[in-house]
Amino acid sequence: MKILTLVASNQPIQPDLLQQVRALADCIRIEWLAPEKAVEMYLAEGKEFDREALAVLLAPHRIDHFLQDGDAPRRKRLLVSDMDSTLVAEETLDELSASIGLKDKIAAITARSMAGELDFHEALRTRIDLIKGLPESAITEHLQHLPWVAGAHELVATMVADGAVTVLVSGGFTCFTGAVAEALGMQYHHGNTFIIKDGRLTGAVREPILGRDAKLECLQHYQQQYGLQREDVLAIGDGANDLEMLRAAALGVGFHPKEFLRRRVENSILYGDLTALLYAQGYRTEEIVSC
């Protein structure tokens, strides 16, 4: 049996719309997780439906949907998440470079890399070389003003309270991943490392660079370490270098994903915040840890 979960972002799920979805997806039973906001729909065994038609139907109402195997464990025991534009509402390297007037130039390279147009490793080296000489104090200052993605704290806190392992893995830098993981209460974090000398960035990064393959390997490492199956894993990210990591998880979700990623993953959050991932796991509103 398949389970279809609908999660509204900023307007209630109306009864007439729900009836249209039920007819389209051949739903045999529904269960509300949050009145008018999140609902699970149990689909008839062996039935297929047009997901593109469903997406078109839901788009004007800004409702996200997730389709999962009903036989898999609903509540995941391992969360592996990207950082930039996923847990924090910015690309940290782009914003860091703003202090020396290079944000537009750096951001253009970042955007092409996240869209799959540039090799991630070379794009990272190019960006780091451009901010050579930046004082380490600029990092410390920027850490005081990180903007959080809505629902990030609730997602991590709820899953940790339920016994899940949470891992932050980023193509960004450990000076940021460490602070983000600590603030959110995540158990593990991984990222790249600036090489700093005399209090300034040297324009180099410690090799090997953590990219697409390393993100996948990180997921597999923790899955093996904790004796988990693919069905126990939730992964979330927004860019091209997250693709293999998302594909390796039973619930791999693109978060407001770049078009490259959106075309290649089955489930995405297009409209809502990160609490949608909790509803996708069957949590009810009253079970979500308030932060």
What's the layout of helices and strands?
Blueprint lengths: L1 E7 L6 H11 L1 E8 L3 E6 L7 H8 L4 E7 L8 E4 L10 H5 L6 H12 L5 H11 L5 H7 L9 H10 L3 E9 H11 L3 E5 L1 E4 L2 E6 L6 H14 L7 E5 L5 H6 L2 E5 L3 H4 L4 E3 L6 H5 L11
Parallel strand pairs: 5-6, 5-10, 6-7, 10-11, 11-12
Antiparallel strand pairs: 1-3, 1-4, 2-3, 8-9
What do you see in this structure?
The chain is built from 12 helices and 12 strands. It is α/β, with parallel strands linked by helices and 291 residues long. It has 2 domains: 71 residues, ACT domain (Alpha-Beta Plaits, 2-Layer Sandwich), CATH 3.30.70.260; 218 residues, Rossmann fold (3-Layer(aba) Sandwich). The strands form 3 sheets. It has a 6-stranded parallel β-sheet with strand order 7-6-5-10-11-12, with helices on both faces. Strands 2-3-1-4 form a 4-stranded antiparallel β-sheet. Helix 11 links the parallel strand 11 and strand 12. The longest helix is centred in the C-terminal third of the chain and has 14 residues. The chain is elongated. It starts with a strand and ends in an 11-residue tail after the last helix. The model has no long low-confidence stretch (mean pLDDT 96).
Q: What descriptors fit this protein?
A:
291 residues; alpha/beta; Alpha-Beta Plaits; Rossmann fold; 2 domains; 6-stranded parallel beta sheet; 4-stranded antiparallel beta sheet; 12 helices; 12 strands
Strand order of the largest sheet: 7-6-5-10-11-12
Taking all Cα atoms into account, the compactness measure Rg is 20 Å
Tell me the count of domains: 2
Order of helices and strands: EHEEHEEHHHHHEHEEEHEHEHEH
Bulk shape:
elongated
Superfamily at the CATH H level of the largest domain?
HAD superfamily/HAD-like
Task: Compute the separation of the termini in Å.
Answer: 34 Å
Task: Quote the beta fraction.
Answer: 15-25%
